[in-house]
Amino acid sequence: MKHDGRNVLNFLAAKGCTAVIIAYDSDKYVNEAVLIYEQKLIELLSGYGFRIAVAYWNPGFGKGLDDILSINVRPNYELVRV
Q1: pLDDT single digits (tens) 53-66
Q2: 34 in a structural domain
Q3: Does a structural domain hold residue 74?
Q4: Whole-prediction pTM value?
């Protein structure tokens, strides 16, 4: 994959970022489109050499990362690519 320095992923890599945590909404477990886009993002990030983790949490605390953080719940995460 060509990296021409004109996007945020190239910027992060140039700044020394080595890992990315993806935190799509928790409805990915019931909304196939959300899960598909999460997988597509993993594939894209893999082309940049980042370590990749996927965040998850109990959907009972909230749908989105902003929802759970606002009530002081922190997500867990699982490495999907080292």
Answers
A1: 999 999 999 999 99
A2: yes
A3: yes
A4: 0.83
